[in-house]
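Worked example 4.2. Below are the chains of a multi-component assembly; read each line carefully before continuing.
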Amino acid sequence: MPVVQSGARLFIAGHDPEKDGRLVYRGRVGEAVAVAETGAALRLATQNALASARDAAGSLAHLRCVILTAYVSTARSDAVAPGVLEESLTLLAMALPSSGRPAAWLRPTQGLAAGMAVEIELLLERTRATRRAGAVRRRGTGARAVARTPRRSGGRTS
Amino acid sequence: MGAEARLKSLRIELPPAPRPMGSYATAVQSGSLLFLSGHGPLRDGRVAYEGRVGRDLSIEQGQEAARLTGLNLLATARDALGSLDRVRRVVKALGMVQCTDDFTDHPKVINGFSDLMVEVFGDAGRHARAAVGMGSLPFGISVEIEMVLEVSGAATGARSAAPAAHGRRTTGRTARRPRR
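Applying the procedure described above to all two chains together yields the following structure tokens:
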């Protein structure tokens, strides 16, 4: 399942860096995907994870991110330097206005499902009861970026 | 039908709960969530599925390894909770597959675990998941799985101090309560 809710927490399954049904970053980082693209790939997967979160919660307005887990398919240590998460963290900060900084877990892997170069999982928490209907959509750039992602197509999960 | 009754009707007998392999707990409850450490495909204290999926093991054998790992996780959960009927749902799993670097069917392998959870818990067994590939796992195990359950009732804290006589081991991930 893309999202499982337990109490105030939303567990977002691992999401891939795809756009419009196409896996944009395929293969291992440092081989088929350039190390310099790691940040952009992680950002795209984060955007897909947020789209699934919004589908489940109705709105991103009152969610905070507790843990951001990033898997990178690579044998290269520079592909898992903490800096590669900056773009994802910036997107999270813009898309989740009521979130502080999450804990970030960056995990190098041997390979990922279907050849995805990176994969993003989120643990989110409701900061207060969110109404499904009529929830306020924030106008931050990040929220717009997420809003551009069509509903029910927040990428594939593994 | 509760999970324990379902296990019975499926004629699934759980192994003894695995023992930890270091100074960590195999399960920790925090609020209504039970966090389980990484478990492997061990049977009677021995690694039953060793090696790399895609080279030493087929996808089908990987699935069997994932199912056996699931049985060990359920044994730990029952030991921690007293009964699997206290499980309200399976929330989240991380499935790690020791595989070749060009292997991409990690989800198929971890389905061996996920399908078992649905057999035992019905719809409540469906979970959020990530299935990933690892270059090496402890003792050469082909699959390692961590999971989070939502449970009813308070933590019992009544886990036996003495390890089960034929207990198997978990594989080295530490679960600690956060210090406040």
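Take a moment to check your reading of the output against the notes. The longest helix of chain A spans residues 38-57. Chain A has three helices and eight strands.
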